[in-house]
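Tutorial, part two.
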Amino acid sequence: MRFRNSTFGLLVAGGAILLVCLGAVYHAARAKTRADTPTTVRAGQNAAAPQQASDSNAPTSLSFAADPEVVPPFAMKDLAGEVVSTSALKGKALIINFWATWCGPCREEIPEMVALQSKYKGSLQVIGISEDDGPPDQVAKFVQKVGINYPVVMYTDALEKEYGGVSALPTSFLVTKDGRVVQKDVGVYPLEYYDMQARYLMGMPVDARIETFKDTGQIFLKNADKASQLPGVSFAGLTAAQQKTALRRLNARECNCGCKLTLAECRINDTTCPVSASIAEKIVKGIRASKPAAAGAKSGVTR
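Running the prediction step on this input gives:
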């Protein structure tokens, strides 16, 4: 009997360890982000970073969407029970920051968000969207402990869907005072970068070159169908018509990796996904191997 009890105890302990490991893997996957902030990123990349001078942290250029969309509205109660509403914040610039207490980069970024809120409290509002799975009171204790001075609400699947899905933490959506989402930051950046972005959102002078890009999924994944190129997908050897066909198929077919995104959205959302890369390659290869239709064939054109 002692042996059986001991065996049972080992099984229970082993199961607990397995659950902890699985939880760690889950959180690590949701918290994936760049370990290093690049000093130069081209305008229009998904995680656009500022171009910086080599001897300074101050950015020399900032990138924003040329065709910004209206911020997806929401009205939710924060951890203190107060309603946080985008409609009630019209006229203020917003930084809608998706984060979690278990996310290391998020904890690194919090003092910068706190500093921005303190500096521009009259014209800027930071809103934290906690992706924690634990009870809100635990998040509230963390918020109080680290001195967060802006409202924090708990995420919902519906809210995250409205913002196109959040594949990495921290992720911030930058909203101008007229309610337009002009950029999405993924990862942690220098305070100088955030400060200059905030000034732009509020309509203040910015000592940096302003570049623009067309949102083809870099901010909202739903705009992937506007893209003419996709990360890791080569359209070499295709005619213009074949490329349109390929893009149409990549935007119509769902990826098999479990992300519930189209192949095009998955390529933009996760450039390291081997599943979407493989399927996309097969689709393009098949189209490349097909013969382009002869000019005028089956067009009904007669002389």
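The helical segments are 2-30, 104-119, 136-146, 157-162, 191-201, 240-252, 263-269, 274-289. In part three we will examine how such features are distributed along the chain.
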